[in-house]
Amino acid sequence: MKTFYIETFGCQMNAHDSEKVVGTLLSRGYQQVEEPDDAELVLYNTCSIRDKAEQKVFARLQEFKKHSKTKTFGVLGCVAQQEGEKIFDRAPHVSLVAGSASYSKLPEMLVQLETGDKRVTGLSLDTEDTFETPMTRRDNPYKAYITIIEGCDKNCSYCVVPYTRGPERSRTFASVLEEAAKLSAAGYTEIQLLGQNVNSFRAPDSDPSRPLGSDFAELLRRVGQVPGIRRVRFMTSHPRDFVRDIVDAIDENPVLCNHVHLPVQSGSTAVLKAMQRQYTRDEYLRRIDWMKSTRRELTLTSDIIVGFPGETEQDLQDTLSLLSEVEYDAIFAFKYSKRPNTPALALEDHITEEEKSRRLLMVQEHQRAIQIRRNARHVGRTEEVMVEGFNKATNHWLGKTTQLKTITFAAPGELAGEYRRVMVTRAGPAALAGELVQ
Ligand code: 5AD
Ligand code: SF4
């Protein structure tokens, strides 16, 4: 029996890609192990969104270099696609370098490795395929990811993803719905639709004259009707293609969760333009207004980049005022990081690390106060959670509400995967605590 170990970095797309890669390996007779020391094949599924993420994989490869005679190493994912064959120069003990657009060729690549090839690559971005496999080995027995669209055509000026994941390719309605129905039959109750821009989903079999975003709205409506599925989430959306019909679809059906992640990146129209985001602050805020006028209360989350080249003090103030105006329930804020091949590299007025750190802190502190206020509103409410896990250190269960709020609570018995009603008794900036309602 051949053994393998896989470590995954980066986003949920990567996490789900790894589930498909693991399934592919298991179906070929490999056995997964928990420690790299026990594995013959060691795989890293990598992220290159920011420089720090990219450095991690080279640190790992360095750590295990001494095993280069007894183990086979593979680099998958975004760093593989971005660095390509240069990885062999930097880490000569690596034998496989493959980007996500090549995973459907994984079985062939494994055969090449098994027959002793020392330099196997899968680096073509010229693909119309999506990576689908009936063998996906999901990590969680209650909530499942389903990829609906791969790649990205948006070309934000700071972002590597178009170079690491290739052009947008959508699946068909039928294949997504079939997967959702199978997952429901297997006992899953929550589904998360995944894609770099889920709302740019455009089924290959759909009428090309249909307006932007309507395919995604229709997909939401249809997945929301799959019997047995109690919750549907989706991640990530791009504001440009976020049309009102999507908000209407959510409003119609409570199975579609009361939460939308709609990354704004900056509150300044000038910075958004330099980022090539294809919307203004006002256009973004219009979408927020739609979501604030739904019958059920939606929570909103976002990504923010600070210190983009040329960002002025006023631009930063615009981001802070946008945070106050929207009142997000959570944000992920990042310092701008220079990425290879991206247009933003050529911009002037790059900002020092020290200044970026100062701006990041300002954004985080500003948002923290908003979250404390937002979360305090939940105290006294009774909310339904899907129980996701147990924290042994605190003896508390951890559940998620439809709004993606975490509530911790104490309760006897085995509750993982169950839906329970919890009354919120305390609120902090990041999570809520409560008591089980019998
Ligand atoms: N530097 C910093 N943050 C980035 N992101 C994407 N590219 C960069 C970059 N070069 C952030 C964006 C995106 C999130 C996934 O990562 O905010 O929404
Ligand atoms: Fe990282 Fe982006 Fe690749 Fe996801 S798609 S792994 S965030 S670089």
Please explain how this structure is put together.
The chain has 438 residues and is α/β, with parallel strands linked by helices. Among the domains are: 3-122, Methylthiotransferase, N-terminal domain (Rossmann fold, 3-Layer(aba) Sandwich), CATH 3.40.50; 382-436, OB fold (Dihydrolipoamide Acetyltransferase, E2P) (Beta Barrel), CATH 2.40.50.140. Helices cover 32% and strands 23% of the residues. The protein contains 13 helices and 19 strands. The protein has helices at 12-27, 51-63, 78-83, 86-90, 106-114, 161-165, 173-185, 214-223, 244-252, 269-274, 281-292, 313-326, 353-376, and strands at 2-8, 30-32, 41-46, 72-77, 94-98, 120-122, 143-147, 149-150, 169-170, 190-194, 231-235, 259-261, 299-306, 330-335, 382-391, 396-400, 406-410, 419-427, 432-436. It has a 6-stranded parallel sheet with strand order 2-1-3-4-5-6, sandwiched between helices. A 5-stranded mixed barrel has the order 15-16-17-19-18. It has a 3-stranded parallel sheet with strand order 7-10-11, sandwiched between helices. A hairpin with a 5-residue loop joins strand 16 and strand 17. Helix 12 (313-326) runs parallel beside helix 13 (353-376). The longest helix has 24 residues, at 353-376. The protein is globular and about 60 Å long. The N and C termini lie far apart (49 Å).
